[in-house]
Amino acid sequence: MLFKDDTKKSQGTLGSHYRPGEVIIRQGDPPGDIYVVLEGRVEVMLQKSDGSSPKRMTILEKDDLFGEVSIFDHLPRTASVYAIEDTRVLTLDQKGFVQHIQEDPSMALRLLKQIGRRTRRLNGELLRLYELLDEHDIPVPASPEAEKDADR
Question: Contact, 43 vs 82, CB < 8 A?
């Protein structure tokens, strides 16, 4: 649970409603708010650069959050998020997000735990991809971002 006090959310007083298939955020959109799934489920989809059909990255459900990357780096959205069933999502702008952290500092720890779980999962997927490439003797060039990080 991301928030300690669940009473307002459970009464249905907060959040926007989305029907199955509705877009909540689109990959490439300007940075903005952070979102918390209050009810329902959403899928995070990544559009490949070749324009082929998007790939599902994950499914998020109650108390999961998304959009946090752009809150921190102020860059365009990295993925699209769609409702896959009737869903209610709380939207927080950066000011509201910071206010919640100030009111409940333990929320920052819960947020970091979610981000940590995602990072571990993505690292595992990346390792499996590297192993598959190694099996087929396909070299993996360093990304421009990795080269920048190495220079720091």
Answer: yes
